[in-house]
Write a structure and sequence with these properties.
The complex is a heterodimer of chains A (246) and B (310). Chain A is an alpha/beta fold and 246 residues long. Chain A has six helices and 15 strands. In chain A, the strands form three sheets. A nine-stranded mixed beta sheet of chain A has the order 11-10-9-12-8-1-6-7-13, with helices on both faces. Chain A has a two-stranded antiparallel sheet with strand order 2-5. In chain A, strands 3-4 form a two-stranded antiparallel ribbon. Classes of the chains: A alpha/beta (246), B alpha/beta (310). At the A-B interface, helix 3, helix 4, strand 9, strand 10 and strand 11 of A face helix 3, helix 4, strand 5, strand 6 and strand 7 of B.
Amino acid sequence: MKILVCISKSPDTTSKIAFTEANTKFDENGIQYIVNPYDEWYALVRALEIKEANGGQVTIVTVGAAADEPIIRKALAIGADEAVRIDADPKDAHYTAMQIAEYVKKNPFDLILTGKETINYNGSQVGGMISEALDLPYVSIATKLDINGNILTLEREIIGGLQVVEVSLPAVISCAKGMAEQRIPNMRGIMAARTKPLQIISPIAIEDLTKFSSYEMPNAKSSVKLIAPENMDELVNLLHNEAKVI
Amino acid sequence: MILVYINSSNGISKASFETVTYGKKLGEVVVITNGNASSNSLNTLGEYGASKVLVDRSVDGEDAQQLTKLVAWAAQEIGAHTVIFSHDLTGKAVAPRLSVRWKAGLVSGAIALPDGSGAISVNVFSGKAIGKVQVQSSNKIISLLPNSIQPEKTGSPCTVNEITANIGSGKIRVISTKKPEGEIPLPEAELVVSAGRGLKGPENWGIVEDLAKSINAATACSRPVADIGWRPHHEHVGQTGVAIRPNLYIAIGISGAIQHLAGVNGSKVIVVINTDPEAPFFKAADYGVIGDAFEVVPRLTAAIKKFRAN
């Protein structure tokens, strides 16, 4: 079983977000990058569990510059066997997905996992785009993944309910909370990660379909209006007459 | 021509009326759908601006690969230049596939109409900022975040055409579906009552549910509460949960960590109830009550019931 896990970098969840160059560029000053949590906690860890139970190989792929190698080493330290970095600075999800799809066309995998979205651009796009480019089935936002021979059984949380679906390999799956538990790399993993193979490949020419032209911060709230805990009639009055929401 | 895909397998949701309303502001709208919603319910989409509904009864609603072919077929059929989805479970799976198939730029999670330059706002950094996306291809795809636009009735019922796109069968088999039972879907809810660790235990959620019921709100929770299993994961709002933008968000016993705020700061009005006057959530709130939830919440529920009775 050959499993590919697509990983992306994202700013640490506690990062303060700011922009530079007249609000056209994300300000990376002081930003600590991590492996996007959905990619790491759910997609990568579930891939490792499948490998531990059934044998096989887990490869991680990212589209990024040399500066992104710390996140690759982190994923290798957690337990991936080998890594591929497609050497480019991706401008949109389509560019990223087409690079990964091109790699997979030359190096087929049985199962391709992504996180359900990144926590910086939140597009939830790359997994679906890879699947279409490879003409593979796609199950998005799965919270449980089991494998039996050639058949995957997946659960998806629909609002207030649950859906169970089956699909044959090969397939692309985007992974959400519930699929696995976060693993902290141990010292042996961190040491081993230094010598695991990292292949660097050149990108293909792909046009960008979208671009972020500028950014802005959400409107700041005016200061909070405090209501005495005894006076809930007043809160109801404000919600009805001032805020007009009830 | 604007094509709007709606998922009508569980009836026609408010999000569907929103996407049609949004599409109508960009041009003439044709709706493509599948499943078994009756023609008499589908034709109500005309009231929100659809000129026609196309429905393929032979396609079940779960296989993104199949639905992509259906939407691409319809786009070709009507000569669409823009396709609109709701940014829900189905839209998140189908829109990216269509982007590749149709070589069209995708704006996912739009929260507004295109501005004068054609740029469309989306939440980025999990709601900590807003990004403006320009689509550089001639065809465009937009998935609209629920509750970003009010549905507007502007027309009358439209014609519903049964069609067969002959797209073949899907590869994903649905084994079982546990349908939601009358709950208000959280991403679509206009009013949300949410609680966190301040409630001290799952057995205390009765006061939260009573308050929610009194205003017909959906219930939500913070991440720690979902992680320790007090509440189901689908109720978790925040950076790694669901991002919502209701008209009213009432947060009870939630401190307001940056990751939680990221998922809710699109809310129009925020009410925070917390014993700790230093809770960071008060900085993001419109109205605050410093007090014990176990006293304040039942009092608020009673005040709402009294107000509703008058």
